[in-house]
Amino acid sequence: MSRIDDNRPSVLGSFTRDAKGTASLELIIVLPILLWALAATTVFYDGFRTRYHAQMAAQTIADIMSRETDLFTEAYVDGMNDVFDFLVDASIPTRLRVSSVIWDSVNERNRLQWSYGTRDLQALPEETFAVLELGDALTLQGLFNEPLAIGPTGALPQMPVADLADRIPPILPGEALILVESFALWTPFASVGLGEMRLAMVVVVRPRFAPFVNFDGIDPIYPTDIYEMTWADDGIDDDPDGG
Questions:
Q1: What residues contact 97, with CB distance under 8 A and at least 6 apart?
Q2: SS3 label, residue 66
Q3: Is the Cα torsion angle 185, 144, 124, 141 positive or negative in sign?
Q4: pLDDT tens over the chain, length 243 residues
Q5: Would you call 61 helix, strand, or coil by DSSP?
Q6: Which of 175, 203, 243, 173 is nearest to 61 (CA)?
Q7: Distance, CA of 238 to CA of 235 (rounded, Å)
Q8: CA dist., res. 110 & res. 208, Å (int)
Q9: Maximum distance among all alpha carbons in the chain?
Q10: Residue 104 phi, psi dihedral angles, 5° rounding
Q11: What is d(CA 101, CA 126) in angstroms, rounded to the nearest whole number?
Q12: What is the C-alpha separation between 141 and 156, in angstroms, rounded?
């Protein structure tokens, strides 16, 4: 009878101590995470780069418009959208909305003098700032022409940023500020957990060489021979609860 070598390692012990193939197994586990991280880093960089270019382009457009003294026209603002596309240097859908904002001294709030949007972007409703002051986003959404439409003509893609009123500096009586809103639709080129995003930029400038600039075809609120206007109540209930 042969003796059994008690010092011979057991099969289970050999398996637990065997390190062959460990690197391959770790690579299989870690590789998907590494590939996702690489793609996510590229997507995030592209998103921030596009947002930065859109912000710089909006500021440039606003600066150009602040130097104008003639009436704004539809063709002029549409042309500014083409310039915006060139400055952004991206093949993403973009739209501009340019508005003139004045101060209503009676109701003590900002007020629209005129507004115009490019590429089917609706102008801001006349009651925008009154409704924003109440914090009623649903009411503002209902003021757009197609609140239930799906796609770029619907109300949601047309809505201004929620803090639009807070971004407008104090306005002197007798002058109007130029409000430039730029919208760009950015879509990530890889699926890393981010969906399609609307980039909304807001720039407010004061006209450099005139107290205000009107829009062609819209009766001016500010006559040229009156410095400060006297407003009537705009009919917006500031306290809908009756308090």
A1: 115, 116, 117, 118, 121, 123, 124, 160, 180, 181, 182, 183
A2: helix
A3: negative
A4: 455 555 555 655 565 565 565 667 677 777 778 888 888 888 888 888 889 999 999 999 999 999 998 899 999 999 999 999 999 977 789 999 999 999 888 888 899 999 999 998 999 999 999 999 888 888 999 998 887 766 777 888 899 998 999 999 998 888 899 999 999 988 887 777 777 888 999 999 999 998 889 898 877 665 444 444 444 455 555 554 554
A5: helix
A6: 203
A7: 9
A8: 20
A9: 124
A10: -95, 105
A11: 11
A12: 7
* Paired tokens of 134: 């109440």
Side chain identity at residue 153, one-letter code: T
Provide the b/e sequence for 199-219 (b: ≥16 CB within 10 Å): bbbbbbbebeeeebbbbeeee
* Measured CA angle at 178 (ends 82, 63), to 5 deg: 55
Structure tokens at 34: 């590494």
Give every CB contact of residue 152 below 8 A, 6+ residues apart in sequence: 93, 95, 119, 120, 121
Q: For 196, phi and psi rounded to 5 degrees?
A: -65, 135
Q: What residue type is assigned to position 200 of the chain?
A: A
Angle between helices 22-66 and 74-88 (to 10 degrees): 150
Helix (H) or strand (E) holding 85: helix 74-88
Look up tokens 């382009």; give the residue: 57
Find where tokens 């104008």 sit: 68
Q: What is the pTM of this model?
A: 0.77
